[in-house]
Each structure stands twice: as C-alpha cells, then as structure tokens.
Design brief:
- This protein has about 200 residues and is an all-alpha fold.
- It is built from twelve helices and no strands.
- The protein folds into two domains: about 5-85, Orthogonal Bundle (Rna Polymerase Sigma Factor, Chain: A); about 95-200, Winged helix-like DNA-binding domain superfamily/Winged helix DNA-binding domain (Arc Repressor Mutant, subunit A).
- Helices cover about 70% and strands about 0% of the residues.
- Helix 1 packs across helix 2 and helix 3 runs parallel beside helix 5 (about 65-85).
- It starts with a helix and ends with a helix.
C-alpha cells in the first residue's frame, strides 16, 4: 500500500495504517531528536510528543508534502518548544573567531591552533571525531545546533534548512557558519593532537 493510501486510512481512524507510516520514519525522527537534544531522555520526549501531535493532527495533513517531511517538521517544532524554556547564552560574533578578534584565545596568540576542518560532513564520518563533535553540538545554543544538524547531519541544502527553520538564507548561513566556527574552536586541541600524531 502506498503512502497516500496509508494516510487516507489513518485519517479515518485506522491505527494500523498510522503505525505503518510511523514505523517508516521513527528511527530517523529519533536520530534527529537525539542530535538536537544531546541526550536520550529528551530525545524520547521529543519523539513521544511528535507522535502524539501527529495523531492529533493527522486529519489536517493535506498530502502537499511527504508524510516524512510533515513528521520531521513536527519533531523540529517539538524540539524548539522543549529548548525554548531553557536559557542559553549566544555564541560569539563571527569576527571574534578570526585572527585579530577579541576572544581570550586570540589575545593569548592561540588562534593559529584553529585548524581548518573543511567540510564538517566528511569529518563526521570519523567515529572518534563524531563522538567528540556530538558532545560539542549538544552544547551549542539550540538555534545554531538545529541549523548545523540539518545542514551537515541531515544533509539538507542551505535553502532547505532556511525553509525548514523559517529563516532567511542569509540568517541561516550565519547560524551555520557561527556553529562551525564555535565547534572548530572547541575542537582545536583535538585536531592539533591528531595532526601531531599523523606527523610523528
């Protein structure tokens, strides 16, 4: 049975059809929630709230997008709602990550240690690095974490990320860049140690 038929059956109360729709996307939704939350408990809460919301709103789904995209959007909204209640400090301005900026690391002359990690997507393929990055992603303010995860983990284009988070492309690019710079700064010591090992 195709997705459209399953949705139509789910909309008239067929729970088995709904369960089949959910089963095709639940792992991906959990993976997204886990990346955005940084812990299992919050991820499970996000997934549960997403499924409950989907059950409540299934009759409003108009088949204008795929069911997975619709479910994905609900999960993002539930993640935002969860983290909106938690106060988080903002990241430094982009200029402070550059040589001559005003952050503490630059004042002590350590800016040379900020290794260029090029494409974060390819870096994430390393198991060792991925664990380190996951830890630091979880520490980013939510709006930057969301943009970074959608761009480099879910591999959406900047345009798709902007549409998903309902921001302009310029604002989205800024969030992604600031997340990259913040993570690169936090991971500099790891990159330096790895570089030294490769050169020895």
């Amino acid at each position: 049975m195709n997705e459209k038929d399953l949705v139509l059956r789910a909309q008239v109360g067929d729970f088995d059809a709904f369960a089949e729709l959910i089963g095709a996307h639940k792992d991906k939704i959990y993976g997204l929630a886990r990346k955005l939350s940084g812990n299992d408990q919050d991820a499970e809460d996000i997934v549960q709230d997403t499924l409950l919301k989907a059950i409540d709103k299934i009759d409003q789904f108009r088949l204008e997008a795929s069911f997975g995209t619709w479910l994905y959007t609900i999960a993002l909204n539930e993640s935002r709602a969860l983290f909106a209640k938690r106060k988080q400090t903002d990241l430094k301005p982009i200029e402070e990550y550059l040589p001559g900026g005003h952050s503490g690391s630059h004042e002590t002359g350590d800016h040379h240690r900020l290794f260029d990690w090029r494409d974060p997507g390819s870096v994430l393929e390393s198991e060792e690095l991925r664990k380190k990055i996951d830890l630091h992603i979880a520490g980013l303010p939510y709006k930057y974490r969301e943009a970074f995860v959608l761009r480099y983990v879910e591999e959406l284009s900047v345009k798709e990320v902007a549409r998903t988070i309902n921001e302009s492309e310029a604002a989205t690019k800024s969030r992604i860049l600031r997340a990259r710079l913040a993570l690169r700064e936090q991971l500099s010591e790891f990159f330096e140690d790895r570089h030294d090992r490769e050169m020895s």
